[in-house]
Amino acid sequence: MKKTQVGTVVSDKMQESAVVKVTLWKTHRILRKRFKRYRKFMAHNPENSYKIGDIVEITEVKPISKRKNWLITKKIESK
Fold first, then answer.
1. S-S: 7 plus which of 1, 22, 53, 70, CB 3.0-4.6 Å?
2. Domains of the chain, start order
């Protein structure tokens, strides 16, 4: 089963690539307070169809290049 994550496109300045920021909510073990953590992924953006601000779903695939092993599969919400 392939891993999927939902995030926001924060950069689309590269050819056929985009940077997707995924927000993770964590809970502190002792204080029980919730806080945010961010993770950025390089994802394959075929035909440069996804733009900054779009909320997208990314799926893990075999390595496309040195830093890209995620593919944008669908757009959930537009900017």
1. 22
2. 4-77 (2.40.50.140)
Separation of alpha carbons 27 and 1, rounded Å? 27
Output the pLDDT for position 1. 78
CA–CA dist 65, 67 (Å, integer) = 6
Per-residue pLDDT reduced to its tens digit, 8-49:
999 999 999 999 999 999 999 999 999 999 999 999 999 999
- Please give the pLDDT value at position 43: 98
Q: Contact at 8 Å (CB) between 55 and 7? A: yes
